[in-house]
Amino acid sequence: MKSKYILCLMAAISLVFFTACASDGTQTQSPANKKDTGNQSNTQNKSAGQETITAQKTDGSVNWLNVRDLERAQQSDKRKVMVDLYTDWCGWCKRMDKATFQHAKIASLLNEKFHAVKFDAEDSDKINFKGEDHLFVKSGRKGFNQLAHKFANGRLSYPTIAFLDEDLNRINSFPGYKAPGQFDALLNYIADDQYKSGTSLAEFQRSFKSEIPASEGAPTRRTNRGAPKVQVVKK
After folding, report:
1. Between the CA of residue 28 and those of 17, 25, 133, 149, 196, what are the distances in Å?
2. In the prediction, which pLDDT does 141 show?
C-alpha cells in the first residue's frame, strides 16, 4: 500500500510539472508579442518609404523635384533638367507659376521630357551637388545659394530658368518671365537638342509654331513695367 501511495504521488507531481511547461510554451505567442512584431514591421516600412523620392506637386500638375533629390532621381531616370530659380518675394515668379507652369500643355511637356526642379535661390542651407558643398552667401538685402549662382552662371534675377543635360552639366539659363507660348518654344529648343546645332533660340522661335496663342499669359504694357531685370552678381 505504501508503495502504491508513493507511485500515485509521483505521478501527480509529474502531471503538474508538464502542465506548467506547456503553459509557459504558449505564452511565446501571446497577442502582445504579435503586436510588437507588427509594430516593428510598420516601422521598417515607414523607414523604407522615407528613402523613396517623392515629387513635390506644388503648382498645377508639374512633377516638381527638390534639388536635393535630383541626383538620385537622375540615377533611375536619366533625362534633361529644367530648374526654376525663384524667391519667395518675387511677384513675377508667382505669375509664372500660375500662367505658365499650370498650363496643361507646358506641364505635360515638362513631365514627359524633363526633371522639373523648383529651387529657392535664397536657400540658406548647405546643398551637396555632384560631390561639392554649396553654401549661402550674404549679398544685398539677403543673399543667394552658391548652387543657384552656378546654375544661373552668375546672372541672378528672378525668375530664371536654367537647363542641365543628362549628366547634370549646365546647358544655359534664361532670365525673366516666360509666357506659356514663349516657354513652349524654349522647352522644345532644349528637349530637341537644337542648342547643339548652332541654331540660336531667336532663330528657333521664329520657325517654331506653338499651339498656345502668343497672347495667352503675355504681360500687358502696364504689368510689364515691373518685369525683372538681369542682375549680375559676383562671388
Report:
1. 18, 6, 51, 61, 69
2. 86
CB 117 within 8 A of CB 65: yes
- Other Cβ atoms closer than 10 A to 136: 18
> What H or E segment, with its residue span, contains residue 80?
strand 80-86
**Looking at the whole model, is its pTM more than 0.85?**
no
Peptide bond into 159 cis (omega under 30): yes
Which residues are bridge partners to 115 per DSSP? Answer: 81
Place of cell 540658406: 124
Residue at 235 is within a domain: no
Distance CA 145, CA 121 (A): 6
Q: Which domain holds residue 71?
A: 64-224
* 3-class secondary structure, 155: strand
